[in-house]
Amino acid sequence: MRKRVYITMMVTILMLTFISCSKDNEIQNQDTIRVNIAALYDELGIRDEMTQALASGNYLLTDTLLVYDASGSLVKKLGSESHSLEPLTFNVKGLANGSYTLVLWQTARSASGNRSWKLFGEEQLSTAILGETSAPLSYAFSAGYALATVAAKGGKLVQTLTPMAIGSIVDMRVNNLTAMHDATALSLWGTHSGYYTGIRLAPNLNADARWYTDHDTTFLGRIAQLPVGQASGMFFTLYHGNIPLELWADKGDDEEYVTDISHSSLPVGGQSICYFDMGRRSWQPPFLGAADAFTAWKADRDTNIPVTDPLLQWGCSFKDVQNYVFGKMWYWPGNDELEYWEDPFKSWHGWWWVSKSLTEQYLFETKDGQNLRYVVCYCWDETVPAQTRDNLLQHQGFQATGNTVQLGSENLNQYLSADGATEALTSFFDGGYWIIVYRPVN
Q1: Contact 301/173 with Cβ under 8 angstroms?
Q2: Helix, strand, coil in percent for the chain, rounding step 5
Q3: Is 260 helix (H, G, I), strand (E, B) or coil?
Q4: pTM of the model as a whole
Q5: Is the pLDDT at 77 greater than 50, yes or no?
Q6: 199 and 103 in contact (C-beta within 8 Å)?
């Protein structure tokens, strides 16, 4: 009896081992394409948001694998939908020996079936275009793709694909939108410069040739839109690089221009914050940039420190000042060439708007912009809190001396820098306007 049981156990073990080895061989002989689907959302900084969106049941991830042969013809197309960010595997069977190009594109669709992306011309790799079908795009509809050239031989092809973003996230934020009468929403618009509706998937294209614009599309370049009552929202856009952007207030069927964001840049991949306070539109321009820079910028604004912060490098050149101003978040030139100011300055000046009501004016000894001698800052809006001037001086390290100094026919209050090398002379005009004149003490 014991011998019979032993033989039965041995047979069972051998059969299980055979079945296990057969399955292992079967898996190893399959063409396995593994997809790291979480990488796209890690790159964009929205992994937590996408996890929550999928958990809500309102969205499904969609991954599409396209296999092209050496001639660029589509030979296989596989798709998958999922509710999590766990890695995904495609098993591709029946490929003949040879070279293949794998294209994997990834996005999400709504649970109701709404899709914001479509693949056009997929039959040939040379004509394949991934294009958007709506705008603006919620962060949940972010899109990315991956390319790989592989060789299939003996039925074994193992490859990992990591989709990377074709655009970026704009974290749109707005305060005090109701400060504009009848405004129903604030929209961030891209201009015709840099307007793209898709990307070509052929791997041999350079960066410029890869981007695609459908000039017949009915979708406009709205990047983000926040209605009254919604202070923030995250959106996905194909706009990238140094491009002019604009903020417009929606007013029912009408619109009103608010301001431009001319000196900004959007990355491909990653995330930017776009922030605007409608209640301070005169003296606080919009912010567009990285999160860490926004934290410092917003802290200054919340303590009523104005954006004007001029270069006080005495003796420097106009070129030095230009380089400094061009590094600001927002600016607009006030004059095209240096102009001569009479008494009391007797200097050549060039100036810039740094908000809708704040200017920085730089005065040089020579017509060609040598030897910075004075800097003058004006506030032209009486609604700007008067305390902002004193906040600026304190931020710059100036302290009031209690003395007055005559400049021309005006008596101005004197402040000194911490090192005593620069004085700031201030005055308020009728109606609440203020001025600060900076100059070397000697």
Answers
A1: no
A2: 20, 45, 35
A3: strand
A4: 0.87
A5: yes
A6: no
